[in-house]
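Cross-check.
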Amino acid sequence: MGQGSVVPRRPTRDDLSVALAQACEELRRSRRENRMLRGENQVLRGAAEPLIHRAPAGERFAFIHRRRDRFGAKLLCRVLVTDGANYRARVRGLANRRHRQLDERRLVELVLEVHTAHPAYGAVRVSRELQIRACRWVGAWWPG
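Predicted model, tokenized:
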């Protein structure tokens, strides 16, 4: 060993018995706390059980969605006895519906614009005019 390096002292039997006593006390405290939390959890689940099992899935998913930032969706799905895959599918569906609504709103604006410019046009001619403007509804893209 080089000069000035300190060799760590090997713990004595007393040091080890003190550390063991502290670890045992910490374990006792943790077990006590776990027992209390389990009891509280059972009380809360019992009180909420009618709400959990009788509430429509939409209400449960809305509840999860509002609180997912605070507790996490996975934990909320487990506590509410709800399938996480169904919740995620619903969230994706909501996002897709919002996107479709925006697209439909824009299409209505374009149809109104064409109809205002050409009031005598019927559905076929309005559709043709939209195609001429390079608006494809199937691809859901609009002119820039």
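Residues 13-54 form the longest helix (42 residues). The chain has a mean pLDDT of 83. Passed to J.P. for a second look.
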